[in-house]
Amino acid sequence: MTMADAFRPHGALNPCQFVPRKASSPVRPWPRPLAPPLLQGVGRGLRACLRVEGVKVRKIRSSWTREHGFTLAELVLVIAVIGILALMAVPSYLSYLRAAGLKSGAQQVVTLVNQARELAIKENGNVCVTLPSATQMSYRLGTCAGSAWVGAGTDATGNINLPAGVTVTASANPIFSYVGSALPVATYTLTYTQTGATLTASVAASGRITIP
Q1: Cα(117)–Cα(122) distance, rounded to whole angstroms?
Q2: What is the pTM assigned to this prediction?
Q3: How far is CA 51 from CA 47, 59, 155, 196, in A?
Q4: Which among 129, 147, 100, 94 is positioned nearest to 209, based on CA atoms?
């Protein structure tokens, strides 16, 4: 019995069985590599056996204990690639945002003009759509010189604020009849103030409003 056997609990793994003997001892082959948890459990006993058997102990760093990471060159390369992709994507993204803002503004203007048409049908009379300014719209009852309609979405004077960042001009003031038709036909030109891009919305004689 070796010294390590004297301190080994009954039934426990004998670490000395994994130690090669001296030339005078029967040669035993090295075992298959042990899993890390098993090595942790028999570490102290194994070192004791190595000292008893006369084997020189050397500190070996296991491959599973190595810390992995990125080098500075790899990090710089990744940052450079991200920067190049950002320079390529940002202009296109900004153009998309501007086009989307103008399109959204045009759709809101179409909704407001359609609201005037619905009001004419509901009131069984004529409703004129006017633009007091490039950023406001109002509905006039009867004629374009009639009283302003005041209701949901208007201020006390009957003005409706148009979408922010968009100015609107009209070729004419369309008047919707009680059947939903419009005369004269009109074209609204919307301008995005940040870029100067324009978009039009047309009012047909049938009363239909479209964005080309």
Answers
A1: 9
A2: 0.59
A3: 6, 13, 95, 86
A4: 129
Q: Which residues contact 8 (CB under 8 A, 6 or more apart)?
A: 14, 45
For the stretch 65-92, pLDDT in tens is 555 678 888 899 999 999 898 888 888 8
Type of residue numbered 92: S
CATH T-level assignment (fold) for domain 96-210: minor pseudopilin epsh fold (3.55.40)
Q: What is the pLDDT of residues 170-188, one digit of tens each?
A: 999 999 999 999 999 999 9
Domain borders along the chain are 3-64, 96-210
The contacts of residue 194 (CB under 8 Å, 6+ apart) are: 98, 101, 165
